[in-house]
Amino acid sequence: MYAQLVKSEGTSREEMSPEEIAFQERIDRNEKIEPKEWMPEGYRKTLIRQIGQHAHSEIVGQLPEGNWITRAPTLERKQILLAKVQDEAGHGLYLYCAAETLGVSRDELLERLHSGDMKYSSIFNYPTLTWADMGAVGWLVDGAAIMNQVPLQRTSYGPYSRAMIRICKEESFHQRQGYAIMMKMANGTPAQKKMAQDALNRLWYPSLMMFGPSDKDSVHSAQSMAWKIKMNTNDELRQKFVDQTVPQAEYLGLTVPDPDLKWNEEKGGYDFTEPDWDEFYQVLKGNGPCNKERLGARVKAWEDGAWYREAMTAHAKKKAARRSAVAAE
Ligand code: 3HC
Q: Which PANTHER family does its entry note (predicted)?
């Protein structure tokens, strides 16, 4: 177990304080860490970064799908999509609450999102151009999210782990509704099947990018895995996602847009072409197709909601003043 006792890459156990060693031993015993317990500052900061970015992703992730609510092809599809978008808002709220237990306020997290200091998932900087994209988003994007989030149910920080248990239940419904749309489209008219293939072509690589850079370029993986904030490496999860998704594409009669995709008997998984990492880093820098639009929409929503926040705060103050006046009588 002591092999895992690394504070950051290159820091040995000998350099850890007794508190840090005791903390790591709790992690190694799979004990959950709870909000008021002692934790290394790096652990707290890493969690705020990861949970905060995850919360932002849920909230920004409502935008590409919200774009289709008014244009869903049937009333039933509209109701399902509305419910899904509403679920994402709920996921964002559970996660902001989990981050708040680490001593950061929701206002500060949102301020850091709006100023561009904090990230959200790269995937939401791509446009959703046709109704088939709603299918592909559910199937691929929620599918990739689940692949990443199911192991996070066992993450070492109690509030994050409990939030993930609730979130995963809903995400698996989202993935199925996406696949159901893809089935309909892929088995529909030739034009519908073409739309489904086009959605897969455009969203395949952005979905693979959701797992983060390749392990050799991942800055945080080693320490996050030692702390069990992350349970798997980025490449491990990406491989599992490809292995799970390729047969699903075949069942739909669609072609994964990778001519070099090939089953590798020896490793028991597919060999596949890596995403274009230059594109990934450009998207992270704010230069993806929809970065400005997405952030602009969130900032506008925050500014437009100012009057409501003020009214709620004034109302809460008035109620508190009334309560203390009654108590003083
Ligand atoms: N999009 C944006 N930024 C990304 C990214 C992505 N797909 N992948 C990695 N990055 C960023 C990291 O945040 C880090 O930047 P920072 O130091 O400025 O924070 C940098 O790239 C280096 O990557 P690392 O591999 O070192 O980073 P992590 O160890 O944090 O791993 C992660 C990245 C796998 C995404 C990890 O943070 C994680 O598991 N997060 C929790 C899950 C999550 O956030 N999911 C969002 C998906 S969307 C969603 O859930 C909505 C659903 O409804 C579909």
A: 1,2-PHENYLACETYL-COA EPOXIDASE, SUBUNIT A (PTHR30458:SF2), PHENYLACETIC ACID DEGRADATION PROTEIN PAA (PTHR30458)
CB distance 288 to ligand 1 below 6 Å: no
Q: How far apart are the C-alpha atoms of 119 and 116, rounded to whole Å?
A: 7
Mean pLDDT along residues 227-256: 98
Q: Is 145 in the pocket of ligand 1 (CB under 6 A)?
A: yes
pLDDT mean across residues, the chain: 94
CATH second-level architecture of 18-276? Up-down Bundle (1.20)
Match 């709620």 to its residue by tokens.
Answer: 312
Structural domain boundaries in the chain: 18-276, 289-328
SS3 call for 289: coil
Is residue 191 scored above 80 in pLDDT? yes
- pLDDT, residue 11, reads 53
pTM: 0.94
Query: Whose structure tokens read 């639009």?
Result: 293
Does residue 122 have its Cβ closer than 6 Å to ligand 1? yes
